[in-house]
């Protein structure tokens, strides 16, 4: 197991938002995290990255290998974040700086975390863009985010997340802001990267259709706890929890 969350509790403004979350991520597997709006999916991802809102009180364990992320100093956690654990957000504008070239955004990260020189970093940046299927990778390094489509920008944001060879990738609604025609391509890309790089992926989405397309394991959250977890086919075809059943019933079409 790559990352294990156990009994994670988060209190914010006197309210317990996460009430004992248990979740396990494995290398080479996509773990889908579903649940209605406000159930705590995003907060779970942010807790792993140590990016909870100011004033949050946290307890439980989040172990990466042998290390407990919740016991780390801010400095140690900073090294893990963007290094071993990376994140892709719904809106690529969140992770891409509009005023910096793609090349700069990819290489700054690597030079800092991986101590590569300019030439090595640039070569790796072009490789990363090829890996996420950006056409004309070399030229793309000199362009700015607005010169790419939404789907391409999300691919670039994924490349930035992969820059320092993470073990864990947290993707929070990575296709929600995109046109339906490009969503499937991004999901296929994430699936392929998970397989090729042996990544442990947490795919946060309210969309069970997205889940059924790529996830190996599925967990369903409600009101700050995971109510059901298991292999995708089992959870989506034969849910054990009434809440999962209700979520599936509320879908317009076929889900698995
Ligand atoms: N900055 C904040 N301060 C206080 N409460 C917050 C804050 N951000 C989120 N919350 C609360 O935390 C709970 C969990 O939110 P979270 O964003 O994790 O849910 P979610 O399942 O990801 O929902 P969505 O699908 O809408 O993103 C919600 O009740 C929300 O109102």
Question: Short description, anyone?
Answer:
This protein has 256 residues and is an alpha/beta fold. The protein has 11 helices and 10 strands.
Description:
The protein is of the alpha/beta class and 256 residues long. It has two domains: 135 residues, Rossmann fold; 71 residues, no CATH class. Helices cover 40% and strands 25% of the residues. The protein is built from eleven helices and ten strands. Strands 6-7-8-3-9-10 form a six-stranded mixed sheet, with helices on both faces. Strands 2-1-4-5 form a four-stranded antiparallel sheet, covered by helices on one side. A hairpin with a 2-residue loop joins strand 9 and strand 10. The longest helix is centred in the last third of the chain and has 18 residues. The chain is globular. The two termini are 26 Å apart. Bound molecules: adenosine-5'-triphosphate. The site of adenosine-5'-triphosphate has 13 residues, from helix 1. It is a peripheral membrane protein. Keywords: ATP-binding, Cell membrane, Membrane, Nucleotide-binding, Transport. Belongs to the ABC transporter superfamily. It holds the Pfam family oligo_HPY. It is found in: Cell membrane.
Helix count equals 11
CATH topology label of the largest domain: Rossmann fold
**Ligand identities:** adenosine-5'-triphosphate
Average of the residue pLDDT scores: 92
Give me the secondary-structure category: alpha/beta
CATH superfamily of the largest domain: P-loop containing nucleotide triphosphate hydrolases
Tell me the β content.
25-35%
Q: How are strands sequenced across the largest beta sheet?
A: 6-7-8-3-9-10
CATH class of the largest domain: Alpha Beta
CATH architecture label of the largest domain = 3-Layer(aba) Sandwich
Level of helix content? 40-55%
Q: How large, in whole angstroms, is the Cα Rg?
A: 18 Å
As residue ranges, the low-confidence spans are: none
Report the count of strand segments: 10
Described by strand count, sense and barrel closure, the largest sheet is: 6 strands, mixed
End-to-end separation in angstroms reads 26 Å
Shape: globular
Protein name: ABC transporter domain-containing protein
Organism: Streptosporangium pseudovulgare
Keywords: ATP-binding, Cell membrane, Membrane, Nucleotide-binding, Transport
Membrane topology: Peripheral membrane protein
């Amino acid at each position: 197991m790559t990352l294990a969350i156990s009994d994670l509790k988060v209190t914010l403004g006197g309210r317990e938002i996460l009430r004992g979350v248990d979740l396990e991520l494995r290398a080479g597997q996509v773990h889908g995290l579903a649940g209605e709006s406000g159930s705590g999916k995003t907060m779970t991802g942010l807790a792993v990255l140590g990016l909870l809102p100011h004033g949050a009180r946290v307890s439980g364990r989040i172990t990466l290998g042998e290390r407990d992320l919740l016991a780390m100093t801010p400095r140690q956690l900073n090294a893990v974040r963007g290094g071993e654990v990376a994140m892709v957000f719904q809106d690529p504008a969140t992770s891409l700086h509009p005023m910096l070239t793609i090349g700069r955004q990819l290489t700054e990260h690597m030079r800092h975390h991986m101590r590569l020189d300019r030439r090595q970093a640039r070569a790796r940046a072009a490789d990363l863009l090829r890996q996420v299927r950006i056409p004309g990778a070399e030229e793309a390094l000199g362009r700015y985010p607005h010169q790419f489509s939404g789907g391409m920008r999300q691919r670039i944001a994924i490349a930035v997340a992969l820059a320092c060879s993470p073990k864990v990738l947290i993707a929070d609604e990575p296709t929600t802001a995109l046109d339906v025609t490009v969503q499937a391509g991004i999901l296929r890309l994430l699936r392929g990267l998970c397989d090729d790089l042996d990544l442990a992926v947490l795919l946060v989405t309210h969309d069970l259709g997205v889940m059924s397309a790529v996830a190996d394991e599925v967990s369903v959250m409600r009101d700050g706890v995971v109510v059901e977890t298991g292999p995708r086919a089992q959870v989506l075809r034969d849910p054990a929890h009434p809440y999962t059943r209700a979520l599936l019933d509320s879908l317009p079409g076929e889900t698995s």
